[in-house]
Amino acid sequence: MPGGERRSGKDRIIFVTKEDHETPSSAELVADDPNDPYEDHGLILPNGDINWNCPCLGGMASGPCGEQFKSAFSCFHYSKEEIKGSDCVDQFRAMQECMQKYPDLYPQEDDDEDEDEEDNQSKDLETSPSIGKEKDGSS
Amino acid sequence: MATSSYAWRHNKTLYTSLALGVFAVANAFYAFVILKRARQRDVDRAERHARMERQMNANSHSASQTEAVPRPEVPSHAPFLLIGGGTAAFAAARSIRARDPGARVLIVSEDPELPYMRPPLSKELWFSEDADVTETLRFKQWNGKERSVYFQPPSFYISPRDLLFVENGGVAVLSGRKVIHMDVRDNTVKLDNGLQISYDKCLIATGGSPRNIPVIERGGQEVEKRLTLFRKIEDFRSLEKISREVKSVTIIGGGFLGSELACALGRRAQSRGLEVIQMFPENGNMGRVLPEYLSNWTTNKVRQEGVNVMPNAVVKSVSVVGNRLLIQLKDGRKVETDHIVAAVGLEPNVDLAKSAGLEVDSDFGGFRVNAELQARSNIWVAGDAACFYDIKLGRRRVEHHDHAVVSGRLAGENMTGAAKPYWHQSMFWSDLGPDVGYEAIGLVDSSLPTVGVFAKGTAKDTPKSATEESGTGIRSESETEMEASELKVSAASLSTLQAPQQGEDYGKGVIFYLRDKVVVGIVLWNIFNRMPIARKIIKDGEEHADLNEVAKLFNIHEE
């Protein structure tokens, strides 16, 4: 019996101590279908394709340099070179050149702010406790 | 600002590290960073160059075009036409562009502003320490960094004039324009200036307009001058200004917007001597969402934020007496105030239903769409205006930011051929002062039976609980204010509260909402980072014999 229970009309209220909840839960959850076609699977789909709509890309794929980003990123992803991506320098350069045209979208950060990478692009829809974060957890 | 538990701070830390992790694993940064370093010293020159280049491009484009075919201000065709410029439309634009290389997206928006997010307008912006916040519209995020309410700066967008011409397409916003007619057979719309635009795929994301209440409307122009219906950036700006000029503001409505604004203004009540009254017909704040005991508890917390909360208040009339407003309630109570904010819900904007021949849902309002958010062959609806079929929970219409993001995103996917149903449940969140922060998912309707499992309060959890439960501080304060403004408010309204029983405090826990014994909604009360578990339980849709066992999955005693 938990720490305390009472009713308030149709509403049940249970108070539990830490000890009450220390034993493992006996609740059963349905096993997830790893190939659920409707579920978001993060950056790489089960079939190996890149999920360009993954919130984890923070809008990189849809911004003004989306084309260049996609071309560079997929070149890298599918690269079979010994040094992965070494055949993609042109694509990455094109991406960089595009990004330079949008300094306020792709800030040219100082060395000590490296973590701010593609911040402006990534922050917009993700500001709220909303989209995507737990999808990545399950991917 | 107090140690308020903004859910997302925690969530976002997790999210960001994951996102960066994914990137790092893919190792793309490697080339990225090296290339970056190589021209670090040329940054200034590059920026100047880029700016010049863009200007030249723009000039030469328009120049060459004017010679050949004049490029109209508004394109006569948009491959992707998004009606409405809010969060749902922006999320759809993102999604379309991510999936369709070079997609050309035109957003037609009545709002003069570029797409922006609304939650900060009733949340963070009010707590900004920047005196120019109404101009900057910047706020501190979960990670301490500042950002703007605008999703993207102007340079993100291309001009509607260039939509059909720029390489790789882009997103253009035609702002300050309204679509007034829709011809589904011809795939065309007509704007309020008479122009026609044809489309291949169209999204209706017209959102909603704030409702007013008839008794206020009957008050006439003088009352209307002292009324705010809160929805847009301009409403934030105007209410912020008013709150610095008047002595008393009354918020009508006990839901999310009303309660958040009450708490935001309540902060000013404490620092500037502004009187803040919140009145609503329900017994407590968030009375249509939270079970009654929790709603009452929350009301107590809102009062501690400096708000004079008047539950069970039904407005009978509003009039101007002298230079002030007089609100008369059905039960005879009278309230004098200087300004009213009516936060009594949203009316979905469905004007286009008639010309387009689209169905409006008679129960929920909004355009009726299927599980894929589709209304007709080339037409989808997302956000507040969509009454959609949720395979798990049935027909719904949802007015929350995250739903705009999730449904806009889904519509964008389906407009580019994904054929996906509404599957990923949206959530919402709210914070009311330092002690109340919650996230919720699914159907959270206080008319449903609920099971709440709370961590038994210890002295450590609730250092202030003793003073809070007595509520004396705030109560005497409110009474003093009432006297000062000669309010004829019965003190009895303050005693309708049911305090939790001795030793019980709804500090943190999880509340399950049941329909036919199945959990259809979950509120995470002052516990954070648990949304994936909640989402999973809703998705399963299984009947659980003992919800206390399910509650264990949420580790409610953990931080």
TrEMBL record, chain A:
Entry GO MF terms: protein-disulfide reductase activity
Biased composition (Basic and acidic residues): 120-139
Residue spans of biased composition, Acidic residues class: 107-119
Keyword ATP-binding: no
InterPro entries with a match to the protein in the record: CHCH, CHCHD4
Entry's Gene Ontology cellular component terms: mitochondrial intermembrane space
GO annotation, biological process: mitochondrial respiratory chain complex assembly; protein import into mitochondrial intermembrane space
Pfam families: CHCH (PF06747)
Residue numbers spanned by region Disordered: 20-41, 100-139
Compartment(s): Mitochondrion intermembrane space
Keyword Disulfide bond on entry: yes
Residue ranges of coiled coil: none
Keyword entries, A-Z: Disulfide bond, Mitochondrion, Oxidoreductase, Protein transport, Redox-active center, Translocation, Transport
Domain CHCH: 65-101
Name recorded for this polypeptide: Mitochondrial intermembrane space import and assembly protein 40 isoform X1
Organism of derivation: Python bivittatus
Protein's gene: CHCHD4
Automatic annotation (TrEMBL), chain B:
InterPro entries hit by this protein: AIF_C, FAD-oxidoreductase/Apoptosis, FAD/NAD-bd_sf, FAD/NAD-binding_dom, FAD/NAD-linked_Rdtase_dimer_sf
Region spans: Disordered: 52-72, 458-481
Essential cofactor(s): FAD
GO biological process per UniProt: apoptotic process; mitochondrial respiratory chain complex assembly; positive regulation of programmed cell death
The entry's keywords: Acetylation, Apoptosis, Cytoplasm, DNA-binding, FAD, Flavoprotein, Glycoprotein, Isopeptide bond, Membrane, Mitochondrion, Mitochondrion inner membrane, NAD, Nucleus, Oxidoreductase, Phosphoprotein, Transit peptide, Transmembrane, Transmembrane helix, Ubl conjugation
Pfam families cross-referenced by the UniProt entry: AIF_C, Pyr_redox_2
Example GO molecular function: NAD(P)H oxidase H2O2-forming activity
Domain annotation Mitochondrial apoptosis-inducing factor C-terminal: ranges: 411-540
Transmembrane segments: 14-35
Record's function text: Functions both as NADH oxidoreductase and as regulator of apoptosis. In response to apoptotic stimuli, it is released from the mitochondrion intermembrane space into the cytosol and to the nucleus, where it functions as a proapoptotic factor in a caspase-independent pathway. Release into the cytoplasm is mediated upon binding to poly-ADP-ribose chains. The soluble form (AIFsol) found in the nucleus induces 'parthanatos' i.e. caspase-independent fragmentation of chromosomal DNA. Binds to DNA in a sequence-independent manner.
PANTHER family on file: APOPTOSIS-INDUCING FACTOR 1, APOPTOSIS-INDUCING FACTOR 1, MITOCHONDRIAL
Subunit composition and interactions: Monomer (oxidized form). Homodimer (reduced form). Upon reduction with NADH, undergoes dimerization and forms tight, long-lived FADH2-NAD charge transfer complexes (CTC) resistant to oxidation. Also dimerizes with isoform 3 preventing its release from mitochondria. Interacts with XIAP/BIRC4. Interacts (via N-terminus) with EIF3G (via C-terminus). Interacts with PRELID1. Interacts with CHCHD4; the interaction increases in presence of NADH.
Protein's recorded name: Apoptosis-inducing factor 1, mitochondrial
Species of origin: Python bivittatus
Encoding gene per record: AIFM1
